Amino acid sequence: MSAQTSSETGSIQTSETPLGRDDLARLVAKDIRPGSFVNLGIGQPTLVSNYLEPEQDITLHTENGMLGMGPEAKGDEIDEDLINAGKIPVTELPGASYFHHADSFAIMRGGHLDICVLGAFQVSATGDLANWHTGAPDAIPAVGGAMDLATGAKDVFVMMTLLTRDGASKIVEACTYPLTGVGCVTRVYTDKAVFLTGPDGVQVRETFGCTLEELQALVPVPLTAAPAVER
Amino acid sequence: MLNFIDTVGEAVAGIKDGSTVMIGGFGNAGQPFELIDALLDGGARELTVVNNNAGQGDQGLALLIKEGRVKKMICSFPRQSDSWHFDAKYKAGEIELELVPQGNLAERIRAAGAGIGGFFTPTGYGTMLAEGKETRILDGRGQVFETPIHADVALIKALKADGKGNLVYRKTARNFGPIMAAAAKHTIVQVSEIVPTGGLDPENVVTPGIYVNSIVRVNNSVKAA
User: Fold this and answer.
1) I need a labelling partner for A35 at 20 to 30 A (CA). Which of A166, A226, B197, B214 fits?
2) Domain boundaries of chain B, sorted by first residue
3) pLDDT at A155
4) Which of A62, A63, A64 to mutate to test binding with chain B, by most B CBs within 10 Å of its CB?
């Protein structure tokens, strides 16, 4: 374990407390580069859309054939022919476009999406992602578009709690759940820290409610503070 | 040969036991409920069905599964909060499942319609869904060989057809319709409206009529915003 102390690097703790789901979504939203084309996964990642600012000019993609997806539809806006990947009624924004499923997945698979944000069961030290199947014998497997997103987007951000309900780290040396993609995750946003993953191991950009040393005690892979330029 | 057919029952009457049937739709959007109900009434059995999901609630594809007409599902996302009929059949070992990443599902269908014998893709490389498949390193990335999915019949839903069988769709109900229309030997389309030839702007046609065999108009008023 090689946690550097804050005295060596300057503190990277940016919050006195762990981040809640909405604070985390706000942080992810802030980190999305202006003008990006983005796909938000089902569940927690969907919250990110609540915090995108109009001046960021972000275009949201939904796998079922649309760019320019707007907020969830309410009341009279609900149209059964206009839904998102989670099958929730949504709206269209000016400049939206519709296309068939092979084109929609070519947008992912052809490397045209800038960022996708996904939930995860586990992320490995080298950015392997496990988020689609527990592998339990009685579980019905369902993969949807997760493997295409993980493999195709230029950047794959994961949003998750750092620890399972049992207190085990979801950042692991090697995933024990079935993989979604190999070496695909570039950043992991958790309640306790933001991690940068890649071939060089796991770097920590910032921590919330803990020091890097305290974080290292929770995570079974070597952590280093990211260079200031990465923060 | 293009036929305009009066009833959904006549439209699906030629579907034989053991057929592979592509059914359009993503969740309920674009799902051709009236054609599926007619297929259920028609009694065809031992079907292999290609759809993104495996039925929702107590309608459409879910009922076809409930009634034991489906031998095998080829889909990407069978497990949903309301997929109880599939769940029961699967747990009872009464239905076979070929689980396919959604982009591979779409591209394998597209490949069938485009005469492509197979393709390599990074999706699924290194995962259990690539086990047993040929792999290569291409452009520095691990890639998996995937084969086309052909079908005897496609059942799809479009908004409008013209007299030449050209189709336009509505919003995200388009989804798998255009690629399934091209991939199946016989494509049956339910539409809300049939317009005269020349009534669709050729620039806006999504599925050209060459892919379409049978068209039936159904009275399903789309709940529009």
Assistant:
1) A226
2) 3-116+150-217
3) 97
4) A64
Interval A52-86: pLDDT, tens: 999 999 999 999 999 999 999 999 999 999 999 99
Q: Which two tokens stand for residue A17?
A: 């407390």
Backbone dihedral angles phi then psi of residue A153, each to the nearest 5 degrees: -70, 150
Say whether domain B3-116+150-217 belongs to CATH 3.30.420.140. no
> What secondary structure letter does DSSP report for B29?
B
* Predicted pLDDT of residue B220: 66
pLDDT of residue B223: 45
Across the A:B interface, residue pairs with CB atoms under 8 Å apart total 159
Spell out the domains of chain A, with CATH numbers in brackets.
19-61+100-191 (3.40.1080.10)
Q: How far is B35 from chain A (nearest CA, A)?
A: 18
3-state SS string over chain A? CCCCCHHHHCCCEEECCCCCHHHHHHHHHHHCCCCCEEEECCCHHHHHHHHCCHHHCCEEEECCCEEEEEEECCHHHCCCCCECCCCCEEEEEEEEEECCHHHHHHHHHCCCCCEEEECCCEEECCCCEECCCCCCCCCCCCCCCHHHHHHHCCEEEEECCCECCCCCECEECCCCCCCCECCCCCEEECCCEEEECCCCCEEEEEEECCCHHHHHHHCCCCEEECCHHHC
Active site residues of A: 63
Residue A145: how many CA atoms within 13 Å on its side-chain side?
Answer: 30
Contact A147 B99 (CB under 8 A): no
Which of A80, A87, A180 shows the shortest C-beta gap to B127? A180
Question: Among all residues of chain B, which has the CA nearest to that of A91?
Answer: B225
Residues of A within 8 A of B101 (CB-CB) are 143-148
pLDDT digits (tens, 9 = 90+) for A161-213: 999 999 999 999 999 999 999 999 999 999 999 999 987 899 999 999 999 99
Q: B79 and A144: CB-CB below 8 Å? A: no
ipTM: 0.95
pLDDT per residue, tens digit, chain B (225 aa), is: 899 999 999 999 999 999 999 999 998 999 999 999 999 999 999 999 999 999 999 999 999 999 999 999 999 999 989 999 999 999 999 999 999 999 999 999 999 999 999 999 999 999 999 999 999 999 999 999 999 999 999 999 999 999 999 999 999 999 999 999 999 999 999 999 999 999 999 999 999 999 999 999 998 655 443
